[in-house]
Amino acid sequence: MPSAVTVHHATKTFPTQRALSNVSFEVQPGERVALIGASGSGKSTLLRSLCGLERLDADSGSVEVFGRQLQGGGRLSADIRALRRQVGIIFQQFNLVGRLPVLTNVLTGLAAEQPLWRTLSRSFPIEAQARALDALASVGLQAHAFQRASTLSGGQQQRAAVARVLLQGARLLLADEPVASLDPESTRRVMDLLLELNRQQGMTLIVSLHNVPLARRYCERAIALRNGALIHDGPTSDLTPQFLEHLYGSAAHELLADGDATDNQTTAPRPACVTVPTRLAEAAIAA
Ligand SMILES: Nc1ncnc2c1ncn2[C@@H]1O[C@H](COP(=O)(O)OP(=O)(O)OP(=O)(O)O)[C@@H](O)[C@H]1O
Ligand SMILES: [Mg+2]
Prior knowledge:
Blueprint: E1 5-13, E2 18-27, E3 32-36, H1 43-50, E4 62-65, E5 68-72, E6 75-76, H2 80-85, E7 87-91, H3 102-107, H4 116-121, H5 126-138, H6 154-168, E8 172-176, H7 184-201, E9 204-208, H8 212-218, E10 221-226, E11 229-235, H9 241-248, H10 252-256, H11 279-286
Helix pairs in contact: 5-6, 6-7
Adenosine-5'-triphosphate binds near residues 39, 43 and 44.
């Protein structure tokens, strides 16, 4: 069976700085991998590169997903559309369109397999709507299907984003700080949901997390970045405070946050649901 993800010598340089430096790793189907690193270490850039939202440098390596090249030599593959269907991504800021019903937001997960006019006119066949309702039911949100997305709590919005990924039929889920804006109880529910998807459906997970206790609790493997370079790849059980200090020096405290695995960022404000189509929605529509 091919690897879920193969990254060969990934380098990404922005005009002002290098965000990824020669990063290589493989992830097998069904693995749960935490991507850790201090702020600015390259986690989001890496995740965005894995689904083709970011192009690597032209003289850089490649990204393969389930054995097929997604990008290489700074170019996205010709069959990027088909590949993207297999890769779901959720973000810290939920990326739902707040003024639209939850169900419609979930239905945008089908953008890649529907004609563009259906997505733009939000006219989806009954069969697709039934599948979207099933996806919402599986994340415990069937009762909220016809509410505006902006009226959901942060945790509910994140679960709706997961439902969209389910409807899309993704086999690989990239989650970029999916719980950083959530209270402890919502954090637990969202992380438990990701764990359940992994265990019951074999969904491969790559989750960037600031909070190492959370990474240890939910993932068996950690990839650690520092200044865009991969500095450690191994079991999350290795991530002791002493080891993190060895890897990160004085920056280690940022990753250890609070000691409690689900008590992260209790004081973070709950961000409002976005009210305009976001980059994800744009990407889905463009796909
Ligand atoms: N579009 C961009 N243009 C220029 N520089 C960028 C861009 N996106 C990211 N960077 C830079 O690349 C580096 C890595 O950023 P990235 O967002 O990947 O880090 P991160 O690990 O996700 O950080 P955080 O934990 O704060 O989300 C940072 O120095 C950032 O300023
Ligand atoms: Mg980030």
